[in-house]
Design brief:
Oligomer: single chain
Family: Belongs to the AAA ATPase family.
Protein name: AAA family ATPase
Distance between the termini: 43 Å
Shape: globular
Number of strands: 6
Radius of gyration: 24 Å
Strand order of the largest sheet: 1-3-4-5-2-6
CATH topology of the largest domain: Rossmann fold
Order of helices and strands: HHHHHHHHHEHHEHEHHEHEEHHHHHH
Structural class: alpha/beta
Largest sheet: 6 strands, mixed
Bound molecules: adenosine-5'-diphosphate
InterPro entries: AAA+_ATPase, AAA_ATPase_domain, AAA_lid_3, ATPase_AAA_core, ATPase_AAA_CS
Number of helices: 21
Low-confidence stretches: 134-161
Helix content: 40-55%
Keywords: ATP-binding, Nucleotide-binding
CATH superfamily of the largest domain: P-loop containing nucleotide triphosphate hydrolases
Mean pLDDT: 83
Pfam families: AAA, AAA_lid_3
CATH class of the largest domain: Alpha Beta
C-alpha cells in the first residue's frame, strides 16, 4: 500500500479519470521514482493500454520489471521496440540490464555499446563495469599443436589482437533449412558455385568474393541460413556477435575486427558471419563518435582486403533486422554487393520448419499443416518456441507415465495457442516506412511484395 499522501491523491485522481494518459504517466513515473515498483508496474501497464507503443511508457514498465529482477518480463516488454531498431538509447541500456540479469553478457554488452554510441549521456559506469567480458579465447582448428601460439602470429598479437570469435564446423546444410528456396538459390549462385566450380567463373572473368547481406524480421532464420551455407560448402564457420567486436576499450575494437578477419583467412574456405551488423556498419553520418566511424572504415578496409587475394576463400555473410541503417558504402561491388531478403515463412514453409524442428523427437502422427495454419505470422524462432513448449509439457507427462509419450498434433496446437508471434507485423510497418519511397535502385525489390501486403 502506498503511504505517501501526494501519491495517494494522484492515484485517486487517476482512478476517477482512467483515460487521462498524462496523469497516468505522471503517476507511474512518480511511483517508480519513489520505489513503489509493483504499483508503478500496474500503472505503466494501464498507461500502455492507452498508448500501446509509447517508448517512454514501455521503458518505464521495463525499468519497473528490471528493478524487481523480472528480467524476462522486461525483455518481453522491450522486444517490439528492439526489433524495430532506432529505439531510444535509454531503451538499449534497459535491455542491457535485463540481458545481464538473464546472464547473457554478450548481448547485454552489444545493446549497451550500441546505445551509448548513439547517446553517450545514457552511459552508466557501474553497468559498463559489469559488462567487461572475460578474457577472450581463440579456438584453433582440431589438431593444432597445443600450448604454443601459432608461428604466424607475431608475439604482440598473441596478447592484444585476438578475436573473441570461434571457429565452428557447422553440422547443418541447406537440407536443414525449410522453405526459402529462392534465398537458398541466390546463396548457391553467389557463394557456393564460385567455390565449387572456380574454372567456370574464371572463364567468365568473374572472381569469387563479395559478401551477402541477409535482412529480414528477427527470428526468420538468417543465422540458421548462414550456418547452413557453411555446412553446405564444407567451409569453416566463424560467427561474430557484435559484442565480440565492440570492445569496452576504445581503439581495440578495430584490432578485434582485424583479428577476426585474420582468423577467417587462416581457416579458408570459411564463412565469416556478422550478426546484427547494423551496429557495425551504420551510416557514418549517424554516428556521434569518431571512434565508431573509424571502426566502419576499418570494416570496409577488411572487406576490400589489402590485395586481390586477401579474402580469397572467405565468404562474408552478414545479417541485420535494420538494413536501412547500413552505410551505402557497404553495398559497393566486392563488399555486401548482394542484398537477400529472408522472409517470414508462409504456411507451407512453417509446416516444413515444424517438421525439421520435430524430427529428432518421439512423434505420433502429426499434422504439421494444421499447426502451420494456426501460426500465421510466426517466424522460425517463434515456431521453435512452440515446439520447445510442447516438448516440455510432454516431458513432464512422460516422467509421470514412466515412458516416452510421443508428441501429437494436439500438443503442438495447444502450445501454439498460448504463444504469440514476436514482431513480424511491427517489422513490416517499419520496413514500409523506410523503403516504400526509397526503392529507386531496386535494392528492396524482394521486400516490396511483402510490405505491400496487409499484416
Ligand atoms: P535470425 O538470425 O533471423 O534472427 P535465427 O536463424 O536465429 O533467426 O532463427 C531462430 C531459429 O529458428 C533457428 O535456430 C532455427 O532453429 C529456426 N529456424 C528459423 N528458420 C528456419 C528454417 N527455415 N528452417 C528450419 N529452422 C528454422
Amino acid at each position: 500500500m502506498v503511504d505517501d499522501p501526494a501519491l495517494r491523491a494522484l492515484s485517486e485522481a487517476a482512478r476517477l479519470s482512467p483515460d487521462n494518459l498524462p496523469l497516468r504517466r505522471h503517476l507511474a513515473e512518480q511511483l517508480l521514482g519513489k520505489g513503489y515498483l509493483a504499483d508503478a508496474e500496474a500503472e505503466f501497464r494501464a498507461a500502455l493500454v492507452l498508448a500501446p507503443k509509447d517508448p517512454d511508457i514501455v521503458a518505464g514498465l521495463a525499468e519497473a520489471f528490471v528493478r524487481q529482477s523480472s528480467y524476462g518480463e522486461a525483455l518481453s516488454a522491450l522486444e517490439p521496440l528492439l526489433a524495430e531498431g532506432g529505439y531510444p538509447p535509454k531503451v538499449g541500456v534497459l535491455a542491457a540490464r535485463a540481458l545481464l540479469g538473464e546472464g547473457d553478457l554478450h548481448k547485454a554488452a552489444y545493446r549497451y555499446h550500441e546505445a551509448v554510441s548513439r547517446d553517450p549521456s545514457v552511459g552508466d559506469s557501474d553497468l559498463a563495469g559489469r559488462l567487461v567480458a572475460p578474457p577472450p579465447v581463440v579456438a584453433e582448428p582440431a589438431g593444432a599443436p597445443a600450448g604454443n601460439p601459432p608461428a604466424y602470429m607475431p608475439p604482440s598479437s598473441v596478447t592484444h589482437e585476438r578475436s573473441t570469435a570461434e571457429v565452428e564446423r557447422s553440422g547443418f546444410s541447406f537440407a536443414d533449412v525449410a522453405g526459402m528456396d529462392e534465398v537458398k538459390e541466390a546463396l548457391r549462385v553467389k557463394l557456393l558455385l564460385p567455390m565449387q566450380q572456380p574454372e567456370l567463373f574464371a572463364a567468365f572473368g568473374k572472381r569469387a568474393g563479395g559478401g551477402v547481406l541477409l535482412y529480414g524480421p528477427p527470428g526468420a532464420g538468417k543465422t540458421h541460413l548462414a550456418r547452413a551455407a557453411a555446412g553446405e560448402l564444407g567451409a569453416a564457420f566463424v560467427s561474430v556477435g557484435l559484442a565480440d567486436i565492440l570492445d569496452m576499450y576504445i581503439g581495440s575494437s578495430e584490432r578485434n575486427l582485424r583479428a577476426t578477419f585474420d582468423l577467417a583467412r587462416r581457416h579458408r574456405p570459411c564463412v565469416l558471419f556478422f550478426d546484427e551488423v547494423d551496429a557495425l556498419a551504420a551510416r557514418r553520418s549517424d554516428m556521434r563518435q569518431t571512434h565508431n566511424r573509424q571502426l566502419v572504415n576499418q570494416f570496409l578496409a577488411e572487406l576490400d582486403g589489402v590485395d586481390q587475394n586477401a579474402n580469397e576463400g572467405v565468404l562474408v555473410l552478414a545479417a541485420t533486422n535494420a538494413p536501412w541503417y547500413i552505410d551505402v558504402a557497404f553495398r559497393r561491388p566486392g563488399r555486401f554487393d548482394q542484398l537477400v531478403f529472408v522472409p517470414p515463412p508462409d504456411a507451407d514453409a512453417r509446416a516444413a520448419i515444424l517438421r525439421i524442428l520435430c524430427r529428432d523427437k518421439p512423434l505420433a502422427e502429426v499434422d504439421f499443416g494444421a499447426v502451420a495454419k494456426v501460426t500465421d505470422q510466426f517466424v522460425g524462432a517463434d515456431l521453435k518456441g512452440v515446439v520447445d513448449r510442447a516438448v516440455e509439457a510432454k516431458l513432464q507427462e512422460s516422467i509421470r507415465a514412466g515412458r516416452p509419450v510421443p508428441l501429437s498434433t494436439r500438443d503442438l496446437l495447444a502450445a501454439a495457442k498460448t504463444a504469440r508471434p514476436t514482431s513480424v507485423r511491427e517489422w513490416m510497418a517499419t520496413a514500409r516506412n523506410y523503403v516504400m519511397h526509397a526503392n529507386e535502385s531496386g535494392a528492396w525489390d524482394d521486400l516490396m511484395p511483402y510490405i505491400q501486403r496487409k499484416w
